[in-house]
Specification:
Elements lengths: L5 H19 L9 E8 L5 E8 L5 H13 L1 H11 L7 E6 L2 H19 L9 H27 L1
Parallel strand pairs: 2-3
Antiparallel strand pairs: 1-2
Helix pairs in contact: 1-3
Length: 155
């Protein structure tokens, strides 16, 4: 059994080539910093779904505008890929916005907020329970040091 399927190898190659082509060949000023996060290719190599993220662009209008630019450039990108990759049939390119990065940032912020609420404030007041624990600990330490002195004197 093969370790890698042909569709996976084609998807990896498409991802690399598209990243370079989008960065260097598309001259549309409306297009922001685009990252090709992943590519999936259909089994018959008829379609390639390209998932992109936009660096610093979370506004839905800007996302739609960037996606429209990429969709209009799909034919040009496909012809450039045909010159660079030796395939009988170059898949049709379908662009999708990958929200996983934005969702990850939101979840990370929520986790940080929850952890911040659970922590006691630094340099804040000691609650009565904490004060009782500290007094008990100090008494235990004093008792232990006295018993060590007594053990040392009797020897």
């Amino acid at each position: 059994m093969r370790e890698f399927k042909r569709t996976d190898r084609v998807a990896d190659q498409l991802q690399q080539e598209l990243a370079v082509l989008i960065q260097r060949e598309i001259k549309d000023p409306r297009l922001g910093m685009v990252t090709v996060s992943s590519v999936t290719v259909s089994r018959d190599l008829g379609y390639a779904d390209i998932y992109v993220t936009l660096l610093g662009e979370n506004d839905p209008e800007r996302v739609k505008e960037n996606m429209a630019v990429l969709k209009r450039a799909a034919g040009f990108l496909r012809s450039q890929i045909a010159r660079r990759i030796k395939l009988r049939h170059v898949p049709e390119l379908r662009f999708h916005y990958d929200e996983s990065v934005v969702r990850g940032h939101k979840l990370s912020a929520l986790i940080d907020e929850a952890v911040g609420r659970d922590r006691p404030p630094e340099g804040g007041e000691v609650t009565p329970e904490d004060g009782a624990l500290e007094e008990d600990t100090l008494e235990d330490e004093a008792h232990d040091s006295e018993s060590r002195k007594e053990d040392g004197e009797s020897r």
